[in-house]
Amino acid sequence: MLIDWFTVCAQAINFLILVWLLHRYLYRPVLAAIDTREQKIAAKIKDAENQEAKAKAAGEDLRKRNQAFDQERDGLMRKATEAGATERQRLIESARQDSELLRVKLSQALGAERAELGRQLSVRIQAEVFALTRKALSELAGTSLEDRMLEVAIGHLRALPEPQRLALAVTTAVAQAVLVRSADDPSPSERSKLEGAIREVLGATAVVHFETAPELVCGLEISVSGQKLAWSVADYLSTLAQDATAIVATGLAAPTEAPAHAP
Predict the structure, then answer these.
(1) Where do the H-state alpha helices sit in 141-215?
(2) Mean pLDDT of 195-210
(3) Which of 3, 4, 92, 200 lies 20 to 30 Å from 76, alpha-carbon distance?
(4) Cβ distance 166 to 233 under 8 Å?
């Protein structure tokens, strides 16, 4: 079989031309397109990696923020719990103190009310007793009793301690007026006897004035510039009433303080 070299050469040339044409118009654009696509894919991959890195960084930042938030929340919750427990304890203690104070005040109020009722009852009983005593003595008082009270008053006047006598004498020397008050008007002889005793004790220049005072039962008062010497049943009864009131007040004061120390 004979080989047609012309045909072979033509086919070779055609093949080379086809290869060049393929390389020039097909292979190079395809390679360029592939390179471009690879570059785009690489850029997308790099962008995706960057996005992933950013997402990881954002996730890590979010995790750290969540962790810090959890820690801060736990701290706030702990502080709130401690503050709530402290406030609760304070409120309980305040309520306990208020309750104790109220209990003490109620106890004191009840004790004071009981003491006041007892005092009023005691005062009324004393008033009734002393009123009856005054009335009985007023009804029983007579001339002999009045005379005896006058003698007692003169005896007390002459028995005054020396300092008190000197003080009254000086006061009488300045004022020169002595007021004598009695339930009944003394007789002239009684006046003379009393004036003599007064001048004997307080000074010869003393001017004695007499005045009736029905509230004085069986007795008299001698007053010199505000200083008073009294000898009467009424005065004795007043002193007795004051002593009785003081004793009752002392007896009622002790139980009043007891409830404040009760548990």
Answers:
(1) 143-158, 162-175, 188-202
(2) 80
(3) 92
(4) no
Query: How far is CA 195 from each of CA 57, 115, 176, 203, 206, rounded to the nearest angstrom?
Result: 124, 48, 13, 11, 9
- Residue the block writes with tokens 């002393």: 130
pLDDT digits (tens, 9 = 90+) for 176-198: 678 888 777 777 888 888 888 88
Pairs from 196-201 (Cβ < 8 Å, separation ≥ 24): 197/154, 197/157, 197/158, 198/157, 198/222, 200/158, 201/157, 201/158, 201/160, 201/165, 201/168, 201/169
Task: Render pLDDT for 9-67 as a digit per residue (tens, 0 to 9).
Answer: 888 888 888 888 877 777 777 788 888 888 888 888 888 888 888 888 888 888 888 88
- The pairing of strands 227-232 and 219-224 is antiparallel
Strands 219-224 and 177-182: antiparallel
Place of tokens 């005092």: 119
What's the pLDDT score for residue 259?
A: 42
Nearest to 152 by CA among 184, 185, 210, 193: 193
Q: Return the structure tokens found at 16.
A: 């080379």
Is this model's pTM higher than 0.70 or not? Answer: no
Rounded CA-CA distance 42/220 in Å is 136
| Residue 183 buriedness (CB in 10 A; 0-12 / 13-18 / 19+) | buried
Contacts 24+ apart (CB under 8 A), 163-167: 165/201, 165/202, 167/227
